[in-house]
UniProtKB/TrEMBL annotation, chain A:
HTH LytTR-type domain span: 146-246
Domain of life: Bacteria
Keyword vocabulary terms for this entry: Phosphoprotein
UniProt xrefs under SMART domains: LytTR, REC
Protein source organism: Flavobacterium aquidurense
Segments forming domain Response regulatory: 5-122
A Pfam family hit: LytTR
Molecular function (Gene Ontology), one example: DNA binding
Modified residues (4-aspartylphosphate): 55
Protein name (Swiss-Prot/TrEMBL): Two component transcriptional regulator, LytTR family
InterPro entries for the chain: CheY-like_superfamily, LytR-like, LytTR_DNA-bd_dom, Sig_transdc_resp-reg_receiver
Keyword Phosphoprotein: yes
Ribonucleoprotein is among the record's keywords: no
UniProtKB/TrEMBL annotation, chain B:
Record organism: Flavobacterium aquidurense
Entry's transmembrane regions: 315-334
One Gene Ontology molecular-function label: ATP binding
Protein name: histidine kinase
SUPFAM superfamilies: ATPase domain of HSP90 chaperone/DNA topoisomerase II/histidine kinase, Homodimeric domain of signal transducing histidine kinase, TPR-like
BP-aspect Gene Ontology terms: osmosensory signaling via phosphorelay pathway
EC number(s) per entry: 2.7.13.3
Amino acid sequence: MDNINVLIIEDTQEQSDALIKVLAENNYTITGVATNFTDALKLFYENTIDIIIIDVFLDGKPDGITFAESINIIPNASKPFVFLTSSQDRQIFERAKLTKPFSFLMKPFNELEILYAIEMAVEKFYAQTNVFMSEEQDTVISNDFLFIKKKNSLKKVAINDILYIEVEERYCNIITEKEKFVIQISLTKISNLLDKTKFVKTHRNTIVNRDKIEEIILADNLIILKGDHKINLSDTYKDFLKKMNILS
Amino acid sequence: MFLYDTMMTQKAHNFLLTFLFLPLFIFSQQEKGANYFEVAIQKKVRSLKSKNNFNKAQYFFFKEEWDSTLVYSMKQLNSNIDIETKQYCHYFRGYSLRKKGLYKQSSIEFGFINKSFQYYYLVDNNIGLLFYYEKKFNEAIIYFLKAEKEILENKDESEITDIYTNIGICYLHLNQYAKAESYLKKDVLLNPKQITKSVVRSNINIANFYYEQYKDLQAISYFKKAYKLSKNIKDFNLKQTTAFNMAVVEENRGDYKKALEYRKEAEDLKDSLNNQNKIWAVADFEKKFAVAQKQKQIKVLQVENKLKNTERNSLFFAAIGLLLILTGGVYLYGQKVKNAKTILLQKNKLDELNATKDQLFSIVSHDLRSSVNALKTSNSKLSATLETKNYDELNRLIIRNSTIANGAYSLLDNLLHWAMLQTKQLYFHKESIHLYSIIQQIEYNYKPLLLDKAITFENSVSKNIFIYVDLDSLKIVLRNLLDNAIKFSNENGKISFYTQETNPDFSDLIIQDNGIGMSHETIKELLTDSELLAKKSNSEIIGTGLGLQLCKQMIKKNSGTLNIESEINKGTKMILTFPKTRTNG
């Protein structure tokens, strides 16, 4: 599990310091703090960013919105973001609203509010609302990462690192090469959200990352994954083998 | 209907070289002579009622409008008709053409009529006249003689006279004096029954006849007779002719005195003729004048009518205009009343708003000012305490300062939001909100206050409740209510937030405290829906009422409701109802 990388765009140092303090305490990694539009773009493209916190007004100009607008035009480049604002000016909001998905946080805010806002932004961005706050689920799944809520913080796991997933009732055991942990999500949801060409069901409650398969021993109904993980292969789910390019 | 055949005769023994006008009168068709013919035609018309053209043709025929007669008789001829009607039509045409002097065409038309025609002798008579006009006296006589037989049978005197005259004159022209004499005599002999112009003329004719042959004695007797008879008729022309004839005769006899008398009489008659003509002319003129007058009157009447019409029209339009103005007036009056009502309502609202604004100012000037002032004095105290290095006191003061600052800040915040709500500038965006998290976030800010009063806080809101509201307004509401709850709680009190499910679409959030509570009157006052802020009670702790007013409006805007249950000294329950987020599966 990795920390979430946060880019802060904020021109008041006092406020960015406060933000950094709160986020660091909650295990977020601050990738950088930009104080103007140009720096923000530079930092955004140079680093791997998961979430951006944007102050609407930079030097008295609504450059924060301009930034959101510019990253929104580029397909697949955009990331979840939260607007920070102290003004409830209707005009600004009407403009900011166009940069969907749109979440904002009124200043002043406390620790809980910023954490909540970040979670909301992630939920809205990946269109999986009411996840982190509910008792049934704690993971949002994007194309590349699982965003998992751990206590007050968010963590991420690269989907490419996953070897296989084992489902036990409402929980899923995620096994990567390095670690093993439990997330809360139903099997149907996770199998719907994961790329079906990449993750295949090999058993009633097992989903395997095809890229990690090292060997399939049909005689023993066994799949051997990277790191010598052995998985059972059930007859019902053997169909996926037909689609594989088998090296003889 | 007469034709004058004026013959100028210069007598050989007329040594005085006087010109004697000897008119010979020939009769084409007497005006009254054809009465029975007219009756016959009327009969014919009645039998041919449907034949409109024939009717018109005969009408114009008797009216002597020859052109119209020609037109309608031709129309009648063009339609399919029986022979008798045809012959009548041809007769009309022949007669009309003769009258118009188109003798050849007339002769052709008469030629169309065959002998079966009942009044064929009239045709003969007409043809005879045509020949006479062309001076073909021999042929004329043949036709006249043909007609004579029939006319004699009919025994119409005037017709007989006419035919005798005509034949006589023709013979005269042919110089067959014996025959002429017999006819003219017959004519004269027939006449005396009634003295008419024709009688006079007959006498003149026979006199002329004798005079021509120098049979002066006989001539003179007839001239005299004509002269005498002429006294009984009104025709001045004839009178003058007879007198003039007498004058010439006397002159020729050498009796100049008498001749002069006759001349004079003739002159007089000429004058009276002229007079009569003048009278006629005057009468004619008068008639014309009268007609013109009438025409003028008609015109005047027309103009008057026109004027009346225009007057009536203008009256009508004026009435319509008035009606329109009236309705317009009524409408405008109604509109005015409506406007006045609206204005009154607006005025009341404005008054209310103005009062609110005044109250706002009083809040700003009093509460905010006192808060900031308290902070100021507290700060000076703080620096004084810093010099004495009394750290415990310092800490206490700092806490107090921050409390005051927090209070002032929340008051300011409320004021701002309230103002924005009133001016409709507040951004409002409903979304799905996790109620539990929000309450936690609100509570986070009040932790020091809760700790200060040793109040137990409990958030037992279900973690599965998502409500669909505007986040910031919800926060304002919760902040205010929690602030109130803390304010009105005793030390070691308890404040709890919990939910209740009464409606599947709504979620009830209850904020309960076991503080000082309030009376029913206060609750009623608080819940009264008014733009005005609740009147400040005497107690300092009651506050401005701005917070709750703001809460009410925010809740309303979020489609929620607010209810208060309270008992004095037992505590208060604030019951908020918000719509739940609709789960789409």
